[in-house]
Amino acid sequence: MILNNTLNTYTIMKHTLITLFLVTLPLFAMAQPEQAVEDWTGKTILLIGAHPDDDSYSMGTLGMLNANGNEVYIAILTTGNVGTQDPDLGMMDLALIRKQEEQAALATMGIPLDHYINFGYDDGMLEFEDKKEVVSQLVRLIRRIKPDVLFSFDPGKGSQRWHKADHRASAYLSADAARAAMWPLLFQGQITNEGLEAHTIPEYMLYDSAEEDKNTWVDISGWEERKVEALTKYVSQFSSGWSDYKGPEMSPEEEEKVKEMLRGWIHEERDGKPMEGFRHYKGLPDDIGR
């Protein structure tokens, strides 16, 4: 009899908790930011990307957020050491070039260089790395800086979003790390030995999303030309240096052509304003893809 009463009590409690969860779920999974991104201040922002120019998807937003009193961190998983068609460039040389390009771009946007982290994995091979090790490093970073918002490649809403190899791996590694970081018994040594704490990221700005999934548009007015200037620092990626790298400077003629090219695709015009689009999500990381 006692056992039956205990089981009945457990069943009632279980059903009550499930009902409560379903009723309150909309409160935890919100599509639109409660406050306009342009008005955010005092937040810690972390962007995770695969390559040293992946911040270009959201560089105007990041520069603005940094200027508005938010702490912006950039974490890049690979060195970008194979991203060239120049047969005379070696992997070590290209890794150094791309590091210098990214640092110059971030400096142009006003983002502190000590907020830039590169994990040093080989370009093009991220999906073949030890996933547990990569996630562990990302979890450590999340627990250390405790971001309020994560910027990341969009893994997809409802179904897998197509990305090329490293972008695809970055999207899922970031989501997996966000989930693992909140559980104190996952990578427990970081807590017991390193003094870190479990951390739940409450909000996400997912970039390179499918157009139909974008639900948040950030007005980067006043930052668009600065973004163009920053992206011209990626000489090895956005100029003739892609196939014939001659150094970090372009001729004035080529630089102007590159700037015109960049102005055509670095943002979208909406209501006459330059915008960067994202899929915003607020809620537990388990439901990022729902």
What does this structure look like?
- The chain has 290 residues and is an alpha/beta fold.
- The model is unreliable at 1-29 (pLDDT under 50).
- A hairpin with a 2-residue loop joins strand 7 and strand 8.
- The chain contains nine helices and eight strands.
- Helix 3 (91-108) runs antiparallel to helix 7 and helix 4 (131-145) packs across helix 5.
- It has a single domain (37-285), classed as 3-Layer(aba) Sandwich (Rossmann fold).
- Strands 1, 2, 3, 4, 5, 6, 7 and 8 form an eight-stranded mixed beta sheet that branches.
Key features?
alpha/beta; Rossmann fold; eight-stranded mixed beta sheet; disordered N terminus
Number of strands: 8
Overall 3D form:
globular
Order of helices and strands: HEHEHEHEHHEEHHHEE
Biggest pleated sheet: 8 strands, mixed
What's the architecture, going by CATH? 3-Layer(aba) Sandwich
- The radius of gyration over CA amounts to 21 Å
Taken together, the total number of domains comes to 1
Helix-strand layout with pairing:
Blueprint: H1 2-28, E1 44-49, H2 59-67, E2 71-78, H3 91-108, E3 116-121, H4 131-145, E4 149-153, H5 165-181, H6 189-192, E5 203-207, E6 216-219, H7 224-231, H8 235-238, H9 252-263, E7 268-270, E8 273-282
Parallel strand pairs: 1-2, 1-4, 2-3, 4-5
Antiparallel strand pairs: 5-8, 6-8, 7-8
Helix pairs in contact: 3-7, 4-5
What would a concise description of this structure say?
The protein is an alpha/beta fold. It has helices at residues 2-28, 59-67, 91-108, 131-145, 165-181, 189-192, 224-231, 235-238, 252-263; strands at residues 44-49, 71-78, 116-121, 149-153, 203-207, 216-219, 268-270, 273-282.
